[in-house]
Design goal:
- Chains A, B, C, D: Its EC number is 4.3.1.12.
- Chains A, B, C, D: It catalyses: L-ornithine = L-proline + NH4(+).
- The structure is a homotetramer.
- The first copy, chain A, has 14 helices and 19 strands.
- By secondary structure, chain A is α/β, with parallel strands linked by helices.
- Chain A folds into three domains: about 80 residues, 2-Layer Sandwich (Alpha-Beta Plaits), CATH 3.30.70.2690; about 80 residues, conserved putative lor/sdh protein from methanococcus maripaludis s2 fold, CATH 2.40.420; about 240 residues, putative lor/sdh protein like domains (Rossmann fold, 3-Layer(aba) Sandwich), CATH 3.40.50.
- In chain A, the strands form five sheets. Chain A has a six-stranded parallel sheet, with helices on both faces. Chain A has a five-stranded mixed sheet with strand order 8-9-7-6-11, with no helix packed on it. In chain A, strands 2-3-1-4 form a four-stranded antiparallel sheet.
- In chain A, a hairpin with an 8-residue loop joins strand 2 and strand 3.
- In chain A, helix 4 packs across helix 14.
- The longest helix of chain A is centred in the middle third of the chain and has 17 residues.
- Chain A is globular, with a radius of gyration of 24 Å.
- Chains in contact: A-B, A-C, A-D, B-C, B-D, C-D.
- Chains C and D meet through helix 4 and helix 14 of C and helix 4 and helix 14 of D.
Amino acid sequence: MSKFSQEIEVSGHLIDSSILTKIFDKIMDLKGEFNVEEIDIGTKKKDHSYARLTITGNNQGHLDEILKTVYREGAVSKVQKEIQLKKSSKDFVMPDNFYSTTNNHTQVFLKGKWISVENMMMDKCIVVKGNKAFCVPVRDVKKGDQIIVGEAGIKITPPERPREGVNVFEFMGSSSSSERPTQHIAKQVADDIYNTKKKGGKIVIVGGPAIVHTGADDSVSELIRSGYIDGVLAGNALAVHDIEYATLGTSLGMNVKDATLAYHGHRNHMDTINAVFKAGSIAKMVKSKKLTKGIMYECVKNNVPFVLAGSIRDDGPLPDVITDVAEAQRQYKKVLKDVDMVIMISTMLHSIATGNMLPASVKVIVVDISQPTVTKLMDRGTWQALGIVSDVGAFLPMVAQQIKKRSK
Amino acid sequence: MSKFSQEIEVSGHLIDSSILTKIFDKIMDLKGEFNVEEIDIGTKKKDHSYARLTITGNNQGHLDEILKTVYREGAVSKVQKEIQLKKSSKDFVMPDNFYSTTNNHTQVFLKGKWISVENMMMDKCIVVKGNKAFCVPVRDVKKGDQIIVGEAGIKITPPERPREGVNVFEFMGSSSSSERPTQHIAKQVADDIYNTKKKGGKIVIVGGPAIVHTGADDSVSELIRSGYIDGVLAGNALAVHDIEYATLGTSLGMNVKDATLAYHGHRNHMDTINAVFKAGSIAKMVKSKKLTKGIMYECVKNNVPFVLAGSIRDDGPLPDVITDVAEAQRQYKKVLKDVDMVIMISTMLHSIATGNMLPASVKVIVVDISQPTVTKLMDRGTWQALGIVSDVGAFLPMVAQQIKKRSK
Amino acid sequence: MSKFSQEIEVSGHLIDSSILTKIFDKIMDLKGEFNVEEIDIGTKKKDHSYARLTITGNNQGHLDEILKTVYREGAVSKVQKEIQLKKSSKDFVMPDNFYSTTNNHTQVFLKGKWISVENMMMDKCIVVKGNKAFCVPVRDVKKGDQIIVGEAGIKITPPERPREGVNVFEFMGSSSSSERPTQHIAKQVADDIYNTKKKGGKIVIVGGPAIVHTGADDSVSELIRSGYIDGVLAGNALAVHDIEYATLGTSLGMNVKDATLAYHGHRNHMDTINAVFKAGSIAKMVKSKKLTKGIMYECVKNNVPFVLAGSIRDDGPLPDVITDVAEAQRQYKKVLKDVDMVIMISTMLHSIATGNMLPASVKVIVVDISQPTVTKLMDRGTWQALGIVSDVGAFLPMVAQQIKKRSK
Amino acid sequence: MSKFSQEIEVSGHLIDSSILTKIFDKIMDLKGEFNVEEIDIGTKKKDHSYARLTITGNNQGHLDEILKTVYREGAVSKVQKEIQLKKSSKDFVMPDNFYSTTNNHTQVFLKGKWISVENMMMDKCIVVKGNKAFCVPVRDVKKGDQIIVGEAGIKITPPERPREGVNVFEFMGSSSSSERPTQHIAKQVADDIYNTKKKGGKIVIVGGPAIVHTGADDSVSELIRSGYIDGVLAGNALAVHDIEYATLGTSLGMNVKDATLAYHGHRNHMDTINAVFKAGSIAKMVKSKKLTKGIMYECVKNNVPFVLAGSIRDDGPLPDVITDVAEAQRQYKKVLKDVDMVIMISTMLHSIATGNMLPASVKVIVVDISQPTVTKLMDRGTWQALGIVSDVGAFLPMVAQQIKKRSK
């Protein structure tokens, strides 16, 4: 064994979840060497496997880089060490060499025990307080926080691919394509929503204004009214268009009922914003019965929390919009706490934002008419997402109809 | 008036159909000069307008080029001249300076009378036989044919934009966007199909295999069975996938009914091709009851003509496929004769081909999930098309359902 | 003349800028009637035209709606009236029936004189202070502000299409397509940038992180260094990626120089954010020589103002990022004051935001690899934009090279 | 061991090429059981691995389906059997249960020896003649041909992922994205072309008309002239546009040199077609010096074979176009014989066609501005392709320039 070698071990569904493949890949990508010291492949499909490898680098730095990388794939050092901590010198500033998180389930070896990191998200640091470890974003780092540095004492468990039970994720595999039987996918998604809810799961919708333009507002409203949705994350545009549609019957100046052009269509958009400012807030519009249907209305009526994050392109924005994006991120995270399923509809901005806040174990469904949008979201780290390339205005009504059938 | 000037006149809905705008544009694009000698704008919206202009070029060649261009926009020379003819010297060869057609309604001044050119298509030549004039593609030019050269004696009438009655074209305007209320567009398209048929119109579908993959096969089959469709233009892929779905229940190896993976999915594709070859043809498969449902089946059963054009990427192709594309073009044209409405679904290749064969007066609806595909078709000359950016597997079932309601 | 009629007049390049066509269209869309009382078409191409129309509605409300609409297209009432004003009752609240602006040059009839509205943007209200009128967004409305209501006393001048001189806008027309000779478009864009600057014009870049990923960072840096750029509007991502590339040589974990994979690529992203927080700001990083090249560096060094607007998906975001989007909008507007040309590169979010703040007379060039993105921006109201569908990483270096040639 | 069990074995880079993962996947997808009897993982990265599994199905049919599937992934039955043959009963008709090929390297056990199947393509059958085996498409099957049926005696070797040496495939991984450093990818592609040629490799271009529209014609012409290209596969459109550009200087009616609009642009397209018909063929145009530059010219001059496949949307098509697609497929295959690298540029139709004819071991590079197009090609079975999402008009000149540098 070379001076610059180290033994690591890894266990789990090494073969069928491709874990071993990825570890071999990473070592070779970084031009390291490896030796398989021991391997024990489960003989049956549900059996766990175990492997022990010696990894060798050209020098200590090289070896360290390889180790860092394979640790992210689930490998652990044969000899466990305690995590190392360093204090933050200044608000918002992490120590050099801070441990940057993945969105996988992560444990840290603290005072001789493995403890799970809470509130797992990707690209954050880990702060240790007493016997607990938390995943914390830069803007929440306070001077003096104890932050994990280096890679010692950290164990990652990549999610295993779903194998049991039939759900839309298993059915579709990981690819996104527009060439799938739409009606059947809609059924599968309906099943998944229905079953998740039946088991007491939490479902959050992330949505863009195309929900309204394409005529899917009623379907989403119904899902909320029927109790399937536990939170709505959006921006100013969804709210404005939803309220314009609910109060004036138009979206982008088109009468949605009979599909004729409204007099002065775009004006309605500005009138809507003014109406909410006059009322003071969306909830007050509902209270004063100026707003009596739609997505925002159902949220207020059914106590479903919604968060509207501001963006630079907003008209207005509405008084309910959180114009400070750092604060909006905090509110998004609150709503996403312990979520089981997230449905992202036609909004790249809010979908990527939400994806960044989710542990990899949360089910994510993305519906968009543009394949590159769907692909981009997955490339940004939310690789567990199921992409559905379809027309929201046709797809969501199908899903809503299917759920209705199941609810009877 | 300069030596290099000529007077032209133009009439029709000059303002609201933008004809005058386009003529002014073209003259300026080519850096010519113009003088408006007389203009008479209809005072009411249905009135026709009239304008007389003097156009001036830098030299005779320049003037001629400008004139050629404005003639295409509907202008005519003040002084009408007879068309000029020249014989084809060789099969497939047109005389230099042959008149290259647009897809607009075209008349030629022959023996002192204006006669309409039959079988109008774009980018072809005009052959005169006796007192008739025909639009003829290169491959049908025979040695000795009398072909129109130059621009004299030709009058074009651009189609006026639809103003009366409500149909989907009026509703949507000319733009294609995915941000429209899908369910309402589906209703409008259903109305248009229903009304066109009620008036005895002829409707042809041009379709690609995504009809089957996305699960819209049943909807199209139903439209054919119910008598709404008078012809199907496609390629090998639609037929193979349709027959695979009808006989084996799969498309691209997925069981469409319960959405599970077929054993050995892709194999089914090749088995289907072999099955048709064994039967000898699609019609024989129907006759021997080996094929009992689907698009191809309904075509055979209901005597709806279909033409399958071969392409270089075909597997097989099926015995029914016309592998010679020049012959396939001739068969397409036969089916398109006197058509009133063409619905193009998820196939750029066959849609552009069909677009090239249609006079601009035919209503064209294009449904595709990709906006660039829809845009490209229009850029290729089929500018009158109405583009719908949606998911075929969700949109066509909506249309079929709406038509069913109307038929009751 | 009916009880519900009114005479309007309009002048300018009525035909070649399609103004008359649009007015006729709008009247017919709204099912009104019109009579052309007088029309005087300029006989030469540079001549202005004049038209006087009587418009008739079914009732006063109908007529008013039609009038509102045609006023937006440049028509004015034959009889001019003073504007009407009403006070804002509350901060952020406009009076009902407030006049909602277009992005066209707008004049208001105030105390018997036409005065131009300053700081023109679309979808805002107009506040009158003394003898001046200002275009003001909702969030800047203060209680007691005098706001224009109704449509009386307002005159709009739609921009005329460019006719003189050769620039890329004239060359390309209004369409966006990927099927254009890329190298020649790059030359035209270079000409336009060079000439705009030579005449003392102001040029602002709006950019997304794809500038860095695709390897165009050096080209943009050079444009700034050479003095062509007067402002950079972006978000957190462009800055982070630019600084990561400048300090660590990677973008998305790929070594840009030799195109190999960095050890621990994504980590670099977080390290970059931490480094800026440690320095305190981008300018301080430049001052302490920790940042010595790239887009942000050149901005600081050359005193080119940059504004980084926060968004919900930001990692960090950097201390320089304005996390309050309402404030970020104000800063964007400052940089955009009196701008002549805006170049938008691979960012829909910031491009739409910027487009909303620009009068229609500003030249806008949009470069993106996705055609739907380009189309969407124009649909959102920035119709004057020139869309170029190309690969930023290949296109911008071409433009930079061409400008360099001209600068010698 | 159950009645419905069978032992299989597999060897090669089982882990790093994911072969074992895929086999486990397939068994589980089909709901079979497996037991790992023996596994020997190479301890070093270049070592081969070996595994022996018992697979169990619910019944013989189930087991057979699972076996069929895993055989495709490289597994072989522990006990080798001779292939089974059956005669074709009729031209174009294969026996039921014919073995349908993959595009992987395939061997058959014939008279006690493993022999390689020649001319490997996907979705075809295998015909045995004497001691040789050939991959044969449906249309080439003759009555009496000995065709392999069932799955016995067939061994597939999936290509291993490239590990050694630096080339663009290794660099990019398998994903296609527009967010890559374009200039570096261009360098890598140039390296690959240059090195392939240096080693005496054969390179074929498959191209669409966007090569000409986007201004990349000169770059492709230069590659041919410099001897890098051994064949050009295209359709009518590329040839017509190339010759229009070469003879009239326009493409789609735009003067490519100075980017102004040609008088009567689209007319040039038809004139070009007529000119080739007058000459009789492209080669005769070159001979008579009517065609003196461009892609087609360089092919003729340098004896580089080109095949133009007809399609239903062709204008003309040119006399050189093979209008029978079955014959065109044969000619394509001839040019593709023993090819090492195929560069597909902006044509989905011809690229998918070519992909279907290639063994998986051929390097394929696809360049297109549309990501869905690139993805679709890979989904259709040409999974080994490297997708580059870029603007052809900017990318190809970069590649050509880089190759020029290397050639000096």
